[in-house]
Amino acid sequence: MNKLLSLLLTLLFSWNAVANNGQVQVEGARIWQAPDHTRLVFDISRPVDHNIFKLKKPERLVIDFTNCAVTPGFQADDIASKHLKGIRYASRAGNDLRVVLDLRQSMRPKTFELKPNAHYGHRLVVDLHDNPSGQPKIAKSVSDIKHRRDVVVAIDAGHGGEDPGAIGPTTGAREKRITLQIAKRIEKLINARPGMSAILTRTGDYYVGLRKRIQIARNHKADLFVSIHADAFRDKSVRGASVYVLSNRGASSEAARWLAERENAADLVGGVSLDDKDDMLASVLLDLSQAATQEASLSAADQVYRHLRKIGKVHGRQRVQRAGFLVLKSPDIPSLLIETGFISNPTEERKLRTPQYQQKMAAAILQGIERYFREAPPPDTLLAER
């Protein structure tokens, strides 16, 4: 019986190989919409060679896949976004596949492949980015220039889009959704406070690169960066919130990167460009900025930790923990990362999904942020004036 089954499987695999001519199969497509870009993801059976080029009048993006075909059940009729009208595809030169993206405007494309993970197989990602306008922002009036500003808090909802983050074992809760829900609650609470305003690094279910999250905060001149996550661990009994700041080792590696790339960047350290400084001066300026930023990060993290402890269990032997998370590596913006709980713990998974607990978590984080700014308000702000 086992020999017969083995023979049948061998014949089945051989038939598939002949039927497909060994071609890569495009099995599906998904779209994720962000404010400034669209991400299109093709599910493929294995890595594929491809070529991409643009056509104008009308705007189109053409992707030629080598030795590739779509599966019989492949559908692209509902693939559209504010950047993309739709998709057309057809076989080309016998064994190849041509996919045409009909664009609503000129876009800057970027493609890359992703290896299989726990949730998806091989994927080809096509990112369509807005072409920057290059128009400078100007003040509307003299009063805009003289006005004391709000402190700005960048709230970063972890994961998003193709990256779901951790997934709960009981209800299948996805970290990317919980982090965004909590982030939006924090944003609303902050914006209701006089002298404070919040911005989100992502506002919907799409992925934002880790360094781009930092850049979004910097573009908004953020005074504090707060990244929201929900932890997972192989031991389902582990629970509790935790707060992280950047480790010294993480700071050292980031300093080396900033110094190596300083000629290609401006306003790296608190508005001071390093590109015209010699190695010694650039290193000293960066060390001073990082030291002040790390001290402020630890102060803010400590206040948030104190208030999280009031609403439930906190995890970790130390009060505030240190790690090399990339989103904490800004040398000029105090940054902290909050693990709101363990989504791998069934009890915390259920709590993290409830609006009541999310609101309690958001309120505790707000109270910690408020206390931090009350003790150390930036000098040019309304909070400092008061």
Top keywords for this entry?
alpha/beta, five-stranded mixed sheet, 15 strands, 26% strand, globular
Short description:
The chain has 386 residues and is α/β, with parallel strands linked by helices. The protein is 33% helix and 26% strand.
Write the layout of secondary structure elements.
Layout: H1 2-20, E1 24-33, E2 37-44, E3 50-55, E4 60-65, E5 68-70, E6 84-92, E7 96-103, E8 107-114, E9 123-130, H2 142-146, E10 151-157, H3 175-191, E11 196-200, H4 210-219, E12 224-231, E13 242-246, H5 248-260, H6 279-309, E14 321-323, E15 335-342, H7 346-353, H8 355-375, H9 382-385
Parallel strand pairs: 1-5, 10-11, 10-12, 12-15, 13-14
Antiparallel strand pairs: 1-2, 2-9, 3-4, 4-7, 6-7, 8-9, 13-15
Helix pairs in contact: 3-8, 6-8
Please explain how this structure is put together.
This protein has nine helices and 15 strands. It has a six-stranded mixed beta sheet with strand order 11-10-12-15-13-14, with helices on both faces. The N terminus is likely disordered. Helix 6 crosses helix 8. 37% of the residues are buried. A hairpin with a 4-residue loop joins strand 3 and strand 4. The chain is 33% helix and 26% strand.
